[in-house]
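Appendix B. Raw example, untouched.
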Amino acid sequence: MSIAEPASPTDTAASARALPQAAGSRWLDHLGTAVMVTLAVFALLLLVLPSLIVIAISFTETRYITFPPQGFTLHWYADLFGRQQIIDSAITSLQVAGAATAIALSFAIPAAYSLVRGRYPGKAFASALIVAPQMIPGMVIGVALLFFGAFIAFRQSNLMLVLGLTVFCMPFAVRIVMARLAQLDPALEEASLSMGASKFRTFTSITVRQLTGSIAAAAAFVFIEFFDNLTVALFTSSPRSRPLAVELYNLVQFDSSPMVAALSSLEILLAFLIMIVLSRTMGLERLAKQ
């Protein structure tokens, strides 16, 4: 029969110090949880609640914007689809957003690969140069493009709009692809090269296939940004072929009817549908990992 040895003074002192530390750690955990919940509720109120208010206003029967809405009608949506200018603006936005997204991704994917896998002088400068538009306000880029276009006799047009939006939004796509690419094991690419595959085939067959989720997320984010962008489009779009964001801006200035809320609700619905498609096809959990 063994007799337990009494705890030494050193062990007793260590246990006494551990109790306040554990209590302090639990207090910090509770504080962090409370802060995160508060921020989540604040973000919900600040972002989601105004969108719900806009959607509710779009169904009001009054001829002016009011909240809470009075009655229920789809008149403003019917009036919206009855205006040819708005339909033409929506078509312009879809064409511009589609073209700009394709161009941005065609440059963003190889640029991200070069910045992550490349080993060459001036890499840090190239990285800073690519992401520089992300640090500049969109309105500044729009004004700069307007003045530069006037200097070289390049008038406002859909081409200028596509180029301006590509420059402004491509850094977001580069960052998204870079984040996933940095997690990929380069040994797979090295194995492909050692087996005789060319660098181009390795890139298209091995690397790009592993970036599918990130490319889809970047495309969705960039498309929504292109479609809803106002700061760049306001200075680069053609006066005869305005995108939907500029048309909405003009409506807010000169029209106080709930049709403005109806148009805003449709744009909210478009972004929501794109996220649903991504969730169904790629999975939100997979996108979060990539």
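End of appendix B.
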